[in-house]
Amino acid sequence: MSLSPAEFNYVSQLVRKEASIVLAPGKEYLVEARLIPVARAVGAANVNEFLAELQRRPNPANQRRIIDALTTNETSWFRDREPFLALTDVVLPELIKARASTRKIRVWSAASSSGQEAYSLAITLQENLPAGWSYEIMGTDISTVMIERAEKAEYSQVEVNRGLPAQQLVQYFERAGAHWRITQQLRKNVSFRLMNLTTPLPAMQPFDIVFLRNVLIYFDVATKRTVLQNAAKLLRPDGWLFLGAAETTIGIDDNYERVAAGRTSAYRVRTGAPAGAVRRG
């Protein structure tokens, strides 16, 4: 059975309300495919029965299961490579000079999924910061399932084969049965927490580097603007923001300027720009 227009509308409104993700018409097949395992897990005969029961008797836990299922969690180690090369070649050398008094770097992996990006950042800092320096990396995601996976820090052979060099697998992982687990030495510098980037964020210490990659593409312009404003509040004045290759702040939030960073580009808060200043097109 396929989703009815009413069922698709229910799911799209739920996802829009809870995660600000826009599900346009034409995504019915995707929604149904993602929800089939959820329906089975709760004992429903099919997705239609699952949604019908949920509409009759709202259940926050099952609504959360829908959010988790429909949140895109595509990720890999050192994804797209260029941003990580920019860190080693451009960003870290500059920050090492600027943070000489504190000798500490804080990084935010804002849409960390199952943790590969956050741990890739940890490996990068571990290998490129001078002796005596420390770092903290915070990973956030809207999916409870992904946060639990990231905290567990265990990955299958297929997952570690996606972009992870063999030398770093040997150095930063240990066997855990049929899986690989991040070593405690690396894990101690990385933490994870559940967070919705589109709502007011909790008070946190500012970050030197923010990776907000491949998440804005799922939002409308107003929501993108909100997320970028939230990020600006947590980015140090001389900090660096990295977006996905298909994403930009241009025409959305003029509080930022795009700058070259090696063979890619990053974004920085404009000097003298008032906090929260945006261009509203």
UniProtKB/TrEMBL annotation:
Keywords: Methyltransferase, S-adenosyl-L-methionine, Transferase. Its EC number is 2.1.1.80. One of its GO terms (biological process) is methylation. It is an enzyme of class 2 (transferase). GO terms for molecular function: protein-glutamate O-methyltransferase activity. InterPro entries: Bact_Chemotaxis_MeTrfase, CheR_C, CheR_MeTrfase, CheR_N, CheR_N_sf, SAM-dependent_MTases_sf. It comes from the Bacteria. This is protein-glutamate O-methyltransferase.
